[in-house]
Each structure stands twice: as C-alpha cells, then as structure tokens.
Design brief:
The complex is a heterodimer. Chain A is an all-beta fold. Chain A contains no helices and eleven strands. In chain A, strands 2, 4, 5, 9, 10 and 11 form a six-stranded mixed β-sheet that branches. In chain A, strands 1-3-8-7-6 form a five-stranded antiparallel β-sheet, with no helix packed on it. In chain A, strand 7 and strand 8 form a beta hairpin. Chain B is built from no helices and eleven strands. Helix content of chain B is 0%, strand content 55%. By secondary structure, chain B is an all-beta fold. Classes of the chains: A mainly beta, B mainly beta. Chains A and B meet through strand 4, strand 5 and strand 10 of A and strand 5, strand 9 and strand 10 of B.
Chain lengths: 110, 117
C-alpha cells in the first residue's frame, strides 16, 4: 500500500504559470523526495529534502516540508511545456523502502 | 556514467512462457530495486538487493524470481505469469547508506513494458 497522497490528481496550466503540487504521508520519515515521470518512461529524481529541513530550492523548483502536518509541496515556477509529466513524492523511513504517493499529472499548455 | 539500462524495452509473453528482464548499472551502486507500475499508478516496490543479497521482498508471488549475479546486474525471471501482471517494470539503483550522504536518491531505468497474453 502507498502511504503518500497527492493533490491535485491532475493539473492543467498555461506556460509561464506556476504549478503547485501537494503530498501528504502517514508515518515519520527520514527524507522526502520528488520524482518526475514522462509518459511511460522511467522516473527522474528532482529533489530530496531531509526531515530536519523546511525548504529547499533547485532551479525553478521549490520544495517545502512540514513534518508536523506530515506534508510537502512542490512548486514549479514559470512552467514550460516540457514540464508536462507526472510528479510523485516518495517518502523514505530508513532502510531501502521508499513509498511513492499517488502522483499528480501536470499538463502545461503552450 | 549515470545511466541505468533495462532490456528489453517491450516484452509480450504467454502465460506458459519463461522470460527474463535485465537491468544494468555502472555507477558503483550497491542497492538495486525492482518496481512494478500499472497505468496511472505509482511504482510499487517488489524487491531490493543490497550488496547482492536480497534485502526486501514485498510478498511478491513466486512466479517472479529476482537474481543479482553481481553488483552491476539485476535480473527478474518470469514464469507462468497472469494477464494482471502486465505492467511497466522499473529497475532502480542507489548508493548504500553512508553517514552524511543522500543515499535514498534512486536512479531509474526506462522500464520494460510487459504484456502477458
């Protein structure tokens, strides 16, 4: 079973707009990661935020983590058509087990 | 080399066939993973190998048999599969746990699209 829930399930925006995706998880974590998956392909790691961090940036990506609410958000600024993909959060509790959220399908219209 | 390769890209097999999926990485990672992903669903963990030893088996049916012949290779042997086993099978690798290193980042291959008839 997957412990992560994501919302929205699908998001459609215009190029240049910002996209925000949210993720919730159920148990204490060591870190939380975000991955992107283009249709029918492998996942690409985007960013990892540790449990003792609250915010992290990487290029046009901004991730926040609120361990008290067991939630995280991914913000993509100035979106591009190439950002069209599915985005998954993935929580790690230690060991090798990573549990993926249900995912948000993002569609960026040119 | 930061690539995980998987072969074949596509596989169609009957329920009585025996086939194998192959995964390879040359990043020196000592943890390797198999995931199963159905359409519009997240990846589900099947197996994890750490230092060529099976570390996690997520109660996967015995018709799926993993093998890790060496630190760079991971196989998934398939036998007597069911149509509901049709899915995208993803391989991933990561570094072993070390203090101060982000070891949970996984590097994924492109997947094998499996269809069971």
């Amino acid at each position: 079973s997957q412990q992560g829930e994501e919302d929205p399930q699908a998001l459609s925006i215009q190029e240049g707009e910002n996209a925000t995706m949210n993720c919730s998880y159920k148990t204490s974590i060591n870190n939380l990661q975000w991955y992107r998956q283009n249709s029918g392909r492998g996942l690409v790691h985007l960013i990892l935020i540790r449990s003792n961090e609250r915010e992290k940036h990487s290029g046009r990506l901004r991730v926040t983590l609120d361990t008290s609410k067991k939630s995280s958000s991914l913000l993509i600024t100035a979106s591009r058509a190439a950002d069209t993909a599915s985005y998954f959060c993935a929580s790690s509790t230690g060991g090798f087990k990573t549990i993926f959220g249900a995912g948000t399908r993002l569609f960026v219209k040119a | 080399d930061t690539e995980v390769t998987q072969t074949p890209k596509h596989l169609v097999m009957g329920m009585t066939n025996k086939k194998s999926l192959k995964c390879e990485q040359h990043m020196g990672h000592r943890a390797m993973y198999w995931y199963k992903q159905k359409a519009k669903k997240p990846p589900e963990l099947m197996f994890v190998y750490s230092y060529e030893k099976l570390s996690i088996n997520e109660s996967v049916p015995s018709r799926f048999s993993p093998e890790c012949p060496n630190s760079s290779l991971l196989n998934l042997h398939l036998h007597a599969l069911q149509p509901e086993d049709s899915a995208l099978y993803l391989c991933a690798s990561s570094t072993p746990r070390l203090a101060g290193v982000d070891t949970d980042t996984q590097y994924f291959g492109p997947g094998t699209r499996l269809t069971v008839l």
